[in-house]
Write a sequence for this structure.
């Protein structure tokens, strides 16, 4: 039995030949496919489906669509979902739902459903699949237009017949109108199915770029205000009729009808009383369960189990308002109708333009705390008068004071009443989305392993197979260190450091940004872009370079190699590669369009292996025929391990070192050759220790956008002439001021590793911050750090204190170079 | 000295695609990025086209039916694609066409063969697959065989080139290839399930 109130026949949306079982509040019920939870519960005479969030008053099904203010339930089957409208939740086998009082609960388990997104473009988007929407879609499709019809019901009012360029989106709510005719829509794809296939996305978020938008969003029935108007058993009149017609469900057996305009047919229901013009309902009575038992009309008591109310029709214009459209009150329609002003190519058709007809304004309700305006917020007419009594006149202010219209139903039934009470020309703003959207849907595929792109070097799988831990640098995953069984991080890093200082070690440096620069003006361009001089660099040689912003602060650094008279190869820091190329293009296109120079990103073209250590030359010699003379800062083009390679003899560690570049598809082969020849793999942590021991900065670690080259100890990179970017700012008095924070070395006097970011003060307990720790490690020279300190090198030998929340460490200020100050090792 | 693809570890998963949406890699093509100064495009563009035996493409278009073919990437900016191993020949020929034989070049030609790999998507469902992550209008009325664009697919920058009504090529940076291939396999799963 699918309910004692199920009619013997009829029900345009249900399949009477089949049955499904569901539970509500723990009680099992039967229904037919096509039923909504609301229709199925009404069929079984379940009248109380929710409670007022603050009043706790029993509440029942009030509507049969998206305007429902009461019947929000928690779905506990499937992935679970809080706050689902029972009037739209299609019953399926195994559905479990429980009633709510205003607020849902997030499921305690992860949602493993799939969600996706799709972009679509069309000539005409029709929102709403009622008769007007179907007619509009058909006309547009017949004219050959690309048409999308989005309808929030299981199927449109009529078949539109096969058109090649027509897409019908069922169970799809258009949730927002944005600039340039972009609309978003939520398609519910599997919730109505029992046991949807796992590969199928549960919901799909559509981004629709529409040439024209046709709003066939219809009209919503408006309630009437009277005392006790929120009891279960009181329902919008046309919703009551719809339950009979669509689902074969009687919303009651004995009805009182209170309608201020055309009254719907309620076949099968005995109409025991009509409220005539000039009359009004003065109260309602209920049984112990809170369900309506009688309607009071003046002194008259009318026993009944259904009160069908209708205060006229109001166009459903959420999207129209989002597009900037205005409305006005139309006495002819008894509603707020479109009044122009919408952006874009937007038209409103059908009942969304207003429903003309004989309309009589219901009698003005008396002040009462028992007249509920917003059921979902439990806000009453008394609250409205309290707001106006406090001096609020604008509908927007009253909305904020009373919270009417702010609940999940966006005030579809309540905001219209309030606007009319206040004599406004429009309802309060209904912002996107018109319905709640789950975060999982907004995330779509961008979760788990696909949350964000992971950039992998060609050697990535080798690093994984050899136990590397990884560090995120920009989008890249870089090997951090390679612990052997039983090694701590410190053990592993010190072992890797020793290999680099005493033997030979290899780093995957493929992530370095690389830019190919060509053109007759390339040297001139680099002279302007870097602080140093590159037009004088000889072919086959490299030079370290610093870039400043126009403010004179360090922006990036790297090595410039000259490959030919008109041809250079630049490296940038890993995280800044894109920003550097963008800045190059900006200056070439806007400031120096006359320079004949072209730049191309080759970051992904080249895989890079840094081979480091006193034995690196011997090791490389087993893999390549090196030229007899290959000086420090030289470039060699030839073959390494049989692979075409560019080798730069540059060092970021202080040791003799080579950066070997091969086309990325040979990167893994090169890496394996270097490691098999005896080099110890090392990661970014060891790279940092080695460079910091030499006092080499990392842009973004030692610098923060307020550090000049001189502050970082890089005055030697500055060309004395030329108008390079930032030079003018470095003539400002402030950038030459004594007492600027400058790079120093720091030696903890206790044997601890300092905390990066710790503030430097002059005395324990002092609060004047003189600088901070930028890098701190335990390396081959013991515990040491780099920092920025007011006064810089003038404070060498002094004691300062590195302070964090839980400790104060005395440190000695030193030279920033801790290892091989003479620079004798790099030449082997 | 065999070259290795950036997504060779995904080759099994790629091989299992088929039916309405097939994904496979065209590894190791020769690729050269060509930049021409605006004022030189008129005089040197035809010389480049003569060397390549195909015209320099108009905006958002590709030219050349087979090898090589040329994609428009932006004003004065092109990608020349050829069979594996041809980059050195392309570079020297372009160097000459750009005036290198007269002592100086206008613009640049850079070997970027290993900077991107090429994913080929074929089948009637691939337009729908692409639209899960690409905001461009790929309807035949708006994007046709021979069209190309630099765009975003999911969160990866790609060059999208349509070669036939149901065939697209995606040029993706090798470091992003693993991410993009995994994303595509995920986006294709619903269509694949119907196939298998």
């Amino acid at each position: 039995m699918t309910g004692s109130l199920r009619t013997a026949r009829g029900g345009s949306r249900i399949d009477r030949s089949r049955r499904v079982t569901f539970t509500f509040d723990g009680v099992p019920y039967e229904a037919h496919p096509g039923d909504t939870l609301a229709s199925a519960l009404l069929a079984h005479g379940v009248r109380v489906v929710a409670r007022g969030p603050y009043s706790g008053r029993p509440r029942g099904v009030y509507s049969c669509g998206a305007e429902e203010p009461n019947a929000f339930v928690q779905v506990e089957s499937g992935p679970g979902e809080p706050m689902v409208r029972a009037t739209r939740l299609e019953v399926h086998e195994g559905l479990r739902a429980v009633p709510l009082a205003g607020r849902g609960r997030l499921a305690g388990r992860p949602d493993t459903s799939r969600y996706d997104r799709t972009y679509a473009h069309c000539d005409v988007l029709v929102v709403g699949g009622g008769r007007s929407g179907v007619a509009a879609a058909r006309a547009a499709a017949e004219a050959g237009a690309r048409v999308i019809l989005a309808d929030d019901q299981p199927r449109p009012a009529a078949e539109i017949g096969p058109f090649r360029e027509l897409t019908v989106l069922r169970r799809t709510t258009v949730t927002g109108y944005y600039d340039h005719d972009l609309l978003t829509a939520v398609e519910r794809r599997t919730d109505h199915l029992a046991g949807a296939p796992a590969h199928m996305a549960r919901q799909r978020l559509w981004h629709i770029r529409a040439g024209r938008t046709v709003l066939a969003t219809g009209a919503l029935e408006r309630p009437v205000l009277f005392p006790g108007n929120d009891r279960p058993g009181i329902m919008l009149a046309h919703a009551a009729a719809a339950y009979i017609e669509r689902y074969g469900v009687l919303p009651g057996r004995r009805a009182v009808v209170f309608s201020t305009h055309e009254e719907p047919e309620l076949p099968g229901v005995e109409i025991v009383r009509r409220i005539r013009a000039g009359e009004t309902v003065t109260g309602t009575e209920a049984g112990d369960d809170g369900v309506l038992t009688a309607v009071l009309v003046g002194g008259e008591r009318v026993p009944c189990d259904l009160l069908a109310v209708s205060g006229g029709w109001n166009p459903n214009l959420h999207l129209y308002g989002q597009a900037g459209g205005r409305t006005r009150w139309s006495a002819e329609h008894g509603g707020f109708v479109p009044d122009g002003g919408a952006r874009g190519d937007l038209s409103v058709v059908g009942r969304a333009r207003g429903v003309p007809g004989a309309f009589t304004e219901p009698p003005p309700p008396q002040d009462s705390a028992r007249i509920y305006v917003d059921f979902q917020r439990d806000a009453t007419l008394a609250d409205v008068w309290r707001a106006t009594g406090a001096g609020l006149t604008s509908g927007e202010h009253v909305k904020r004071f009373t919270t009417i219209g702010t609940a999940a139903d966006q005030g579809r039934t309540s905001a219209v009443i309030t606007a009319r009470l206040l004599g406004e020309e429009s309802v309060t703003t209904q912002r996107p989305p018109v319905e709640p959207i789950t975060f999982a849907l907004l995330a779509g595929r961008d979760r788990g392993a696909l949350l964000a792109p992971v950039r992998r070097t060609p050697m990535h799988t080798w690093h994984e197979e050899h136990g590397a831990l990884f560090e995120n640098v920009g989008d890249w995953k870089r090997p951090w260190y390679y612990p052997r069984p039983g090694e701590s991080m410190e053990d592993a890093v010190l072992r890797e450091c020793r290999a680099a200082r005493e033997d030979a070690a290899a780093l995957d440096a493929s992530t370095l940004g690389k830019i190919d620069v060509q053109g007759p003006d390339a040297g001139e361009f680099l002279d302007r872009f870097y602080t140093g001089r590159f037009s004088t660099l000889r072919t086959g040689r490299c030079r370290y370079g610093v870039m400043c912003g126009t403010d004179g602060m360090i922006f990036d650094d790297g090595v410039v190699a000259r490959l030919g008279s008109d041809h250079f190869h630049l490296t940038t820091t890993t995280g800044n590669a894109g920003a550097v190329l963008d800045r190059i293009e900006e200056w070439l296109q806007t400031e120096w369009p006359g320079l004949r120079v072209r730049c191309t990103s080759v970051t992904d073209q080249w895989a890079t292996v840094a081979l480091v250590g006193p034995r690196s030359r011997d090791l490389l010699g087993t893999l390549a025929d090196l030229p007899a003379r290959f000086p420090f800062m030289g470039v060699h083009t030839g073959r390494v391990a049989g692979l075409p390679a560019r080798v730069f003899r540059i060092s970021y560690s202080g040791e003799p070192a080579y950066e070997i570049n091969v086309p990325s598809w040979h990167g893994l082969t090169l890496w394996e050759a270097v490691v098999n020849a005896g080099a110890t793999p090392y990661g970014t942590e060891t790279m940092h220790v080695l460079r910091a021991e030499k006092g080499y900065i990392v842009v973004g670690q030692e610098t923060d956008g307020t550090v000049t080259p001189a502050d970082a100890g890089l005055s030697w990179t500055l060309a004395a002439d030329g108008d390079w970017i930032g030079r003018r700012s470095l003539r400002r008095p402030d950038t030459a001021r004594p007492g600027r924070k400058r790079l120093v070395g720091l030696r903890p006097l206790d044997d601890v590793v300092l905390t990066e970011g710790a503030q430097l003060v002059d005395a324990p307990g002092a609060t004047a911050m003189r600088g901070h720790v930028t890098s701190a490690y335990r390396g081959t020279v013991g515990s040491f750090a780099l920092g920025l300190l007011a006064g810089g090198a003038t404070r060498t030998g002094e004691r300062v204190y590195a302070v964090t929340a839980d400790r104060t460490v005395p440190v000695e200020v030193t030279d920033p170079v801790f290892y091989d100050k003479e620079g004798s090792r790099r030449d082997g | 000295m065999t070259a290795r693809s950036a997504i060779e570890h995904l080759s099994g998963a790629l091989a299992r695609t088929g039916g309405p949406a097939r994904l496979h890699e065209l590894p190791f093509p020769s690729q050269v990025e060509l930049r021409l100064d605006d004022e030189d495009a008129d005089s040197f563009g035809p010389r480049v086209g003569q060397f390549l035996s195909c015209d320099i493409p108009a905006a958002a278009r590709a030219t050349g039916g087979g090898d090589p073919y040329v994609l428009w990437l932006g004003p004065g900016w092109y990608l020349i694609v050829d069979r594996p191993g041809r980059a050195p020949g392309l570079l020297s020929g372009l160097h000459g066409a750009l005036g290198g034989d007269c002592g100086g070049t206008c613009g640049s030609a850079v070997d970027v063969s290993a900077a991107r790999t090429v994913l080929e998507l074929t089948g009637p469902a691939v337009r729908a697959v692409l639209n899960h992550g690409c905001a461009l209008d790929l309807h035949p009325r708006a994007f046709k065989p021979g069209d190309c664009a630099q765009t975003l697919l999911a969160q990866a920058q790609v060059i999208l080139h349509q070669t036939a009504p149901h065939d697209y090529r995606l040029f993706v940076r090798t470091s992003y290839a693993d991410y993009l291939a995994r994303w595509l396999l995920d986006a294709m799963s619903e269509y694949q399930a119907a196939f298998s």
Summary: The mean pLDDT of chain A is 94. The longest strand of chain A covers residues 115-127. Chain A touches chain B through 54 residues (CB under 8 Å).
